[in-house]
Amino acid sequence: MSLAELFLELGAVILALAFVGRAAGRLGITPIPLYLIAGIGLGAFVHLGDAPEEFIHIGAEIGAVLLLFTLGLEYTSGELRDNLKANRSVGVLDLALNFTPGLLAGLVLGFSPLAAALLGGVTYLSSSGIASKVLSDLGRLGNRETPVILAVCVLEDVAMAVYLPVIAALLIGGTLAAVGVNLAVALAAFSLAFFLALKYGHVLSRVIHVQSNEALLLSVFGLVLVVAGLADMLKVSAAIGAFLVGIALSGEVADRTRHLVEPLRDLFAAVFFVFFGLQLDLGSVPDVLLPATVLAVVTSLTKFYTGWYGAARAGVQTRGRVRAGATLIPRGEFSILIAGLGLTLAPTLGPLAAVYVLITAFVGPILARFDAQIAPLLDRRLRLAGVAAVVPAEPAPLAPLAETRETRAD
Question: Structure pTM?
Answer without folding.
Answer: 0.71
